[in-house]
């Protein structure tokens, strides 16, 4: 939760909702007990849990923005780690609208992440697309280095 809020905090901003919550079956969207939030949770995340990843920002009376994906909690390996660690695997794969992204505000690490995410989206979705849809998908997932 802290990592999701860090950039906003550095600008003196915050959001008033949790960063993520459990997602249940049969469209039970807010199903716990797992969550990622400023408020303490009573249930630790475990591999196999599905949770939303939805940081955002809302300026009262003006606008709001939120990118929301579902992720699966998974065990990860980190060289030299002294204990088992968890990470996330993104489940929902849709392009992020780059016309809404100011690349001048992104670090090189963030640009690399966005390019890798879009490459994964293209790789996963392209086999099921018709020619016209595939041309669109290639256009909206092209690497940032090729321009916005």
Shape: globular
Percent range for β-strand residues? 15-25%
**Number of distinct beta strands:** 7
Oligomer: single chain
In helices, the fraction of residues equals: 25-40%
The overall pLDDT average reads 90
- Poorly predicted regions are none
Structural class: alpha+beta
Pattern of helices and strands = HEEEEEEEHH
Please summarize the sheet with the most strands: 3 strands, antiparallel
For the CA atoms, what is the radius of gyration? 17 Å
Q: Could you give the order of strands across the largest sheet? A: 3-6-7
Q: Between the first and last Cα atoms, what is the distance in angstroms?
A: 29 Å
- Count of helical stretches: 3
What does the model show?
The chain is an alpha+beta fold. Helices cover 25% and strands 20% of the residues. The protein contains three helices and seven strands, in the order αβββββββαα.
Could you provide a short overview of the structure?
The two termini are 29 Å apart.
Structural topology:
Layout: H1 2-10, E1 20-21, E2 35-36, E3 50-53, E4 56-59, E5 63-66, E6 69-76, E7 85-90, H2 108-125, H3 131-140
Antiparallel strand pairs: 1-2, 3-6, 4-5, 6-7
Which tags fit this structure?
alpha+beta, 3-stranded antiparallel β-sheet, 3 helices, 25% helix, 20% strand, globular
